[in-house]
Structure formats: C-alpha cells, structure tokens
Amino acid sequence: MSTTRRAATRQLSVARVTSGYDRADVLKEVSIEVRPGEVTCILGANGAGKSTLIRTILGLNRVRAGAIAFGGASLAGMPPHRIVALGIGVVPEGNRVLPRMTVAENLQVGGLLEAQPRKVAERMEAMFAIFPRLKERRAQLAGTLSGGERSMLSIARGLMTDPELVVFDEPSLGLSPLFVSEVFAIVRHLKAMDLTILLVEQNVRQTLDVADHGYVLSQGRVVAAGETRMLREDPELHKAYFGVH
Fold first, then answer.
1. Which residues belong to any copy of the ABC transporter domain (predicted)?
2. DSSP class of residue 143?
C-alpha cells in the first residue's frame, strides 16, 4: 500500500440480509450501502446487531437470506481469507495484536496473503510513513506498547493487505479520550487517501463528525439511515437510540 493510491471504485452492498447464531436470527432483513471513497458508519447500542453484521460481511456468519456483494462479486458463502483477498481489510475490535511479536513481525503477519516479499516490504514502509511512531518501535514487542500504539498497530496490520475497503470494528473501545481522538484522526487521514471505510462504533459524536452516511441498528434492524448531518441534527434519534439527551 502506498501513501498515494487509486481512488476506490467498488461499492459494498448488503441487501435484505438475515443472519444469526444457531436458530436465532440476530439480523433481520438488513440493507446497507458502503459507497466508494466514503466513510459509512453503523451505530447502535450493545446487542443491536453491529458485530453480527460485521461477522456476516466478513464470512464468519452464514447469510441465511439476502445478498452481500463487493463490486458486483457475491460474498455469500465465500471464506474469510478470500473476502480479504478481494480487497476488504479488517481492524478487529479490541486492538488485537500479537503481544510476543515485534511491531515489524505483526505487520508481516498482516501481509501473509501477499506472495511477493518485495510488496510486503513496500507496504510496511508505507505503514511507517503513515504511523511514524510505529517505525520508532519497529523492533519493540507489541505487548509493551501503549494502548494508543497498539491501536495504531492494529490499524496498520489491517492495511497490510492493501485493501480498497477497511472495516473498523469499535476502534475506540477501551481507549482514553486522547487516544480516541488519535484514532478518529487516523480515520480522517485514510479517508483523504480515498479508502472506503465501514466504521462500527458506539462513540456517536465523533463517528457522526467523520462519517458521510450512517445507519442505526436496533434489535437487528435498520431503524434510521441517511447523511450523518441529518442523523446528527435529529434529537429524537439521539434520545431513542444513543441515550443522549
């Protein structure tokens, strides 16, 4: 991945998707669109179905009904590694890093799907250009990093596949307010690089500030959708679904 890249062209479409666990349907006919080069956010309380939606898009949960497509290619039934290879990167919840490996080794793990070592090295240097603090700590064990640095490493590792679309699953979870601001600054930077971003978050205000479009989930259904400017200015929506008065 270079610090300059071609503009994103492929849209992620989720059409009337139902999914869940065992016999229970958690998502019920959910439809969303993630437009190329934009930040689309998914908001909702705990248990609303946000994580199930992400797992279903990434092939970790089976699509029981409906369709998911990226750039016209169906993702339903596709294994997760093939979905990633199509150009969808993942930054998982909880800033998951490999604590006994160095920063550089964590990034190399993120590039395992790339067969050419030269490209892996180029992407790693691109990550160090975006995250200079990681370059300073490239030989440091990931488990000794600060919370904010682990968050940077988790994001950088998700970008090592050179994705066109990046899925962020609760990237600010457990971080101090200072590091939360850093995470959203990174999202803005990636947006400026023409990446397409699907951002799942509970941090309502900062998410609505950075995103272009948003969807609100409640009990596995989309209950509101639109430009984030409209969602931000709807006090009844905030009271009903975000606990903001």
1. 9-244
2. G
Tokens 């294994």 -> residue: 79
Residue 123 lies in a domain: yes
Establish if 15 belongs to a structural domain: no
Q: Is residue 134 part of a domain?
A: yes
Burial category of 106 from C-beta neighbours within 10 Å (exposed 0-12, middle 13-18, buried 19 and up): buried
pLDDT value of position 175: 83
Separation of alpha carbons 18 and 23, rounded Å: 12
Sign of CA dihedral 56, 59, 64, 66: positive
Contacts of 6 (CB under 8 A, 6+ apart): 194
CATH number where 220 lies: 3.40.50.300
pLDDT at residue 80 is higher than 90: yes
Residue 3: pLDDT over 60? no
Longest dimension (CA), the chain: 53
What is the percent of the chain where pLDDT is above 70?
96
Determine the 3-state secondary structure of 60 from DSSP.
Answer: coil
